[in-house]
Every structure is written in structure tokens, then in C-alpha cells.
Amino acid sequence: MLLSFSIFGLASMTFATNAPAQVACSGHKLLPIPRPESSCSDVKPQIYPSPDGALRALVFPVDVSLYATPDMESRVVIRTSNSDTLISKDYSSPRGANGYYVVNAKWSPDSQFFVYSMSSSGGHSPWSFPMMVYSRQKNRIAGFSDMIHGGPTVSADFHFAGPHTLIASTWKQPGSLDDKIAVTVDLEEAFAKLAPSSD
């Protein structure tokens, strides 16, 4: 009687140990073992409607590597309300660990600009959060760094003051990561000064 109880207990323990672990489908994580090929197929894009309802920005999880959650890298798409694609930008890398994923994103109050900050999928330069800006009038995506004389953005956080004035953070002096300052940019003026796109 005691022997059969012990065998049953051992069988239960083995079953519990071999139970499949829950697959991680979000959270920007690298995984120690690959997830199943068909996992996370129901992951949906994040959708950001413009305040005037005319456009939508979508942030798609790229899902290149099975050794990472599918949101580890992003693709940004701007569409009209009737689903026509205006522009698309892919931030994925061939192996899924050298690209970028979107951290924060929002439209300007006047619906003319969509701004998003990103972080490296492989953890490179963890202090840097590249920011990109979509201009509705120009139908162009440009780097915010080009609007602040090549300086980096050192925080994923940003906000708007007025219809299209963006406030973000950069370093006070090159290489000084502990000393950051706010930088304010009128996006309409900044796009007017940018060199023509080479895309």
C-alpha cells in the first residue's frame, strides 16, 4: 500500500515538472529557450488615432526571433481612416536583437505630427532613446536628433506644449548622462529646416 502511494506521488511530481510553461508574448524580453513557432499569433498592433480622427498610427510587433517576445522590435505604419497606407518604417533586425521597439508614442494636439521614442532590442546604449517624428504635411519620418543638432534623447518620455511644440530630454554636455536638460522644438519649423529626404 505504501509502495503504490509513493509511486503515485512520484508520477504526480513528474507530471507537474513536465507541464508546459506559459509562453511569454509581451514585455520586450529575450528568452532563454525559443518559444514554439506558432506561438503569439494573436498579438495585435497598438493603434494611435490622431486627435482629428483622419489618421491612425499603428505599431506592429515584428516577431523576427523566437528567442524573444514578438514585441521586441517594431514596425510603424501611418494609415488614413479608410486604411490607405501613407508611410511605413521597419525597425527590426535580421536576427531580432539589433533593432528597436517603440516605448512611447503620441500625436501632437493638432494632429500634424506623430512622435515615438524607442529602445534598443539588444540592450545596446541603454541610456539612449532615439525619437522619430512623422510629419503629416511632408508625409515623412525624420529623426528628432537631427532637429537638435545631432544630440541624443536620453529619456523615452516627452510631451507637447501647444499644438506642435515638443519637449524632450537631451544631455547637457556630450557624454554627460547624469546631467540632462529639456529641449523644446517647434516641429513645424524643424521640418521646414530639414534637408530633403534621401528615401
Short description:
This protein is mainly beta and 199 residues long. Helix content is 12%, strand content 33%.
Radius of gyration: 22 Å
Order of helices and strands: HEEEEEEEEEEEH
Strand content: 25-35%
pLDDT average, as an integer?
A: 87
CATH homology superfamily: Prolyl oligopeptidase, N-terminal domain
When the domains are counted, the total is 1
- Describe the oligomeric state of these chains in a short phrase: single chain
Helix content: 10-25%
Q: Tally of extended strands?
A: 11
Shape: globular
Using the 3D structure, state the CATH architecture.
7 Propeller
* Alpha-carbon distance between the two ends: 77 Å
Strand numbers in spatial order across the main sheet: 1-2-3-4
Give the structural class: mainly beta
What does this structure look like?
There is one protein chain. By secondary structure, the protein is mainly beta. It has helices at 2-17, 187-193; strands at 46-49, 55-61, 74-80, 85-90, 100-107, 113-120, 131-135, 140-143, 159-160, 165-171, 180-186. Mean pLDDT is 87; it is low at 1-20. The chain has a four-stranded antiparallel sheet, with no helix packed on it. The protein has one domain (44-193): Prolyl oligopeptidase, N-terminal domain (Methylamine Dehydrogenase, Chain H).
